[in-house]
Write a structure and sequence with these properties.
This protein has helices at about 35-40, 45-55, 75-85, 100-110, 120-130, 135-145, 165-170, 175, 195-200, 200-210, 275-280, 285-295, 315-320, and strands at about 1-5, 10, 10-15, 60-65, 90-95, 110-115, 155-160, 180-185, 215, 225-230, 235-240, 255, 260-265, 275. It has a 12-stranded mixed sheet. It is about 30% helix and about 20% strand.
Length: about 325
Amino acid sequence: MLIDKFGRKITYLRFSVTSRCNFNCFYCSSRLPSDALSKEFNLDDISFIFNVVSDLGISKVRITGGEPLLRQDIVDVVKESRKANFREIVLTTNGFRIFELADDLKQAGLSRVNVSLDTLRGDIFEEITGSNSFEKVVMGILKAIDVGLAPVKINTILLKGINEEDIVPIAELTIKYPVIVRFIELMPVKGNSLWKIHYLSFKDAYGILSKHFDLIPLPRNGSEVADYFKIQGSEGSIGFITPVSQHFCSFCNRLRLTASGKIFPCLFSPNYIDIFEEVKGRDTIGLSEKFKLSVNVKPKEHGEIKLDAKEFIENMRELGG
C-alpha cells in the first residue's frame, strides 16, 4: 500500500496515454514540451507500468490524454489494464470516437467513461473546442449509456460569459438519462490568461441551478472530490468539483502520469518524478521506488488560487486533468 506522509492512501492513477488531441479547447491548450509526443509509451510499456502499480496497491486507473481514443491500440490498452486486475478502469474522452468504440471498450473490460461536454449548443461547442462534432459527441454519449459504460459522467467546465445558459439544460440531462453531470471550476493553465476572464465559481453555478430546482444533497463517498446533489425524481445526479474555491486536498488519493513518463504527485505543482528510463529498461524495482518516492514527496495541499495569481498547471493536455 502506498501511503503518503499525511496518512493518505494512494490507490488511484490517472495515466495520460497520449498528449495528442483532435480538439483545441481554449482552456487547456498550451504549447506542449518537445518530448510530450516523441516519448509516448507503447503498449508493452503501458502493460509493464500497469503490472508494477497494481502490485503497489493501485486499484483504480483512469486512462486520459490528450484524447486517449486517438491511440489505435486503445482497446488493447484497456485489455492490458484488465489483466492487471484493477478494481476499476475508467476513461476520460472528448467523445469524438466513443460511438464507434463503445462496444469494443466495454468488451475489453472498461468500467465506465467520462465525456467532456461544455454546452448543448452546436455553435458554442465549436467556439470552445474548435470542432464541429457536437452531434457526434452526443451520439457517443447515448451509445456509451446503451452499452453499459455506466454510470456515464459528463464533465462540464464552468465558463463565465460562455456557457452560463447551458448550466440548467445540462443539469436536466440527469432527469432524462442515468448520467452524472459534474460541473468543474476552470483551472489556471500556464500561458493561458483567459482563466481570469472566464472563471465561474461553483457557488455561482449552484445559484443558477437553485433558481430552477430543489437540489437534494447526497453523502460524500470516500475520496470522491465532488459534492453531489440530486434533482427530485431524476435518474442521475449533479456534482460540483471545486479545485479553486474549495480545495479537496485532504481527500486526494491519486498520482498523475504523463505520456512521456513524468509522475506528478500534485496537479498544481511543477514538480515531477521521471520514470521513462525505468520503464524502457523494464526495471521493476527502480520503477517501484520511483512511485514510492512520488508518494513521499506528495504535498499536503496546494496554495490558494486567486484571480491575480500566477498560472499553476504546467500543461493540461500533457497532464490529463
